Amino acid sequence: MAKLMTTGLSALYDALRRAGYTVIGPTVRDGAIVLDELRSADDLPVGWGVTLAPGGYRVRRRDDQAAFGHSAGPQSWKPFLHQPRVKLWEADRVGDGFEVREERPEPPRYAFLGVRPCDLRAIEIQDRVLMGGRHTDSAYAARREGVFIVAVDCTEPGETCFCASMGTGPKSGPGYDLALTELIDDGSPRYVVEVGSEAGSAVLAEVPTEEADEDLQACARAEVAAAAEHMGREMPALGLRDLMAESLDYARWDEVASRCLSCGNCTMVCPTCFCTTVEDTTDLTGEHAERWQLWDSCFDLGFSHLHGGDVRSSPKSRYRQWLTHKLGTWHDQFGSSGCVGCGRCIVWCPVGIDLTEEVAALQAERDQRASGERGAP
Amino acid sequence: MARMRPVPYRVVERRRETRDTVTLALEPVAARIAEPSPGQFTMMYAWGVGEVPVSVSGGGAKPRVEQTVRAVGAVTRALCGARPGEMLGLRGPFGVGWGLDEVQGFDLILAAGGIGLAPLRSVVLRALADPRRYGRIVLLVGARTPADLLYPDELERWRRCGVHVEVTVDRAAAGWTGHVGLITSLIDLVDADPARAAAFVCGPEIMMRLTARALVERGVPPHRVRLSLERNMRCGVGWCGHCQLGPLLLCRDGPVVPYERAEPLMAVKEL
Fold first, then answer.
1. Considering Cα of A114, then A120, then A123, then A127, what sign does the dihedral take?
2. Is residue A143 within 8 angstroms of chain B, CB to CB?
3. Shared domain check, A111 and A36
4. Is A234 part of any domain?
5. Alpha-carbon distance B178 to B250, whole Å?
6. In this complex, do B239 and A298 lie within 8 Å of one another by their Cβ atoms?
7. What's the Cα-to-Cα distance from A361 to each of A301, A326, A367, rounded to whole Å?
8. Average pLDDT per run of 10 along chain A, which is 377 residues long?
9. Which of A19, A65, A119, A177 has an alpha carbon within 20 to 30 A of A11's alpha carbon?
10. Which residues from chain B sit within 8 angstroms of residue A96, using beta carbons?
11. A–B: how many Cβ contacts below 8 A?
């Protein structure tokens, strides 16, 4: 049953701390709403919102006290679970051979406070990539296992959001321990809470709540339903996978390549992009070696390097790889789309490439080709 | 990250095959990797330099692993330079192999271009170890020049064991009396029943496309023509994303892929 938190978010923050969690959540820093460790609930971006555009991001003052009145910021939760740099092992020369050691640092026990539905789905997608196959990424799994997730339904999507058309929001899907809906009346927020796990129930027992009456629950549902109608962007719901497979030789790829800088920003901010490379090093004596795993990007020229040259040497082929993988071949590889509709790749693209616009253009090109074929004698 | 941890193997034998290619025989120092099946690969680690995927080219007496490496970059140069007694690291075996067990009773047509003979060597060795399980074995080999031909002594031995071996080179040299030209020109010499054959092809992508197409035209069913494809690999276990070829993660869904699956993907430039 849904509950109403009768005090502010401090009580929830304190309960999470008492339960031993390091609380990570949104906070304002350097002109952006970033994700970082919260020292108290006061660190939350209360009264802050964002203005988003292709290639544009600004924080703005809100005229209410909403703590979650903002949509996706520059980071997702990815760096906390799938770290940008991980030492895989180190080794020392012993005699004429070597010995490999793996460090297993105690993983932090995180509570994520304020996971939006799109990002909740993104975590589930990365789980499937890094833990769902034959081999489990144990560094990821160790961090992921103990995470406590406080999801927050989206009541105010941004200008670049399209979770509704990807089926990932604005209502939180499964996978949370607690899910909040933030309701603003008279400028100050109230929080309706749903419990998604036993751990969630235990934490909520430490927070002052009362039963949420039917009116309040209906109000929460209505706010979320209204958000679905206010998405800043839209993606065609069906047929993306086929469109990606059919469009490999379309002219639109040349057009987008004329704007794309191959910088890889989209892959860094994407909550599901998982690609990594490894770096092998030795110290100056050559007696000690290490291997590190680092985030990598399919926009880097060397990503597809073979001894004969780079397979994807043109920026066109690299953008095509990214988009067709994200929206198309991800289904073949991992059983779902790789896009959750958070819109980060639109916002943080320095030239404002908008994937929903690219998909629409590919669709138009397909329609044009189809009508051309029909028109042929 | 046990899957990311190289298992120490000692070089017990190093055979120079050509000017830039050596075959290393490796034996485990203590722990060992699982036994590779023909067509699978390992990630070979050269101390402090890095790691590359290399197809297994034979085993011999277990737990020995044999791998043929061509020096084309920093890691492969270091691997090729490894002397007997030196220690390297192996991870694996990874990927889907040729599926030799699935084609028992069939004729085998094996077509290799250059270093592509390495993963097919393990097929020949496995098939010759139990020749009654297969029909005829035909091995077509293409090399740039006679000096670039891998395993010349073994080719002779396999001939004596009944393997039909045909070799062609792009450029002949003094004393060469064999074929000159594309490997596809050898297909007409194949004395096997295409409808009762399985064909395994490994070599440069253009060679595989032309060879596979010619084999299918000769009547080998497309699902029994299998190609060993190559892409950049960083992990071998499906996490790093480098080895994508359209819908495939080649470390997981390959490196051996049926021609019917590979054909449309190879037809797209820079996929």
1. positive
2. no
3. yes
4. no
5. 35
6. no
7. 26, 17, 10
8. 88 97 97 97 97 97 95 95 96 91 89 98 98 93 96 96 95 96 87 97 96 93 94 89 96 98 97 97 94 97 92 97 98 97 98 97 95 71
9. A119
10. 85-87
11. 126
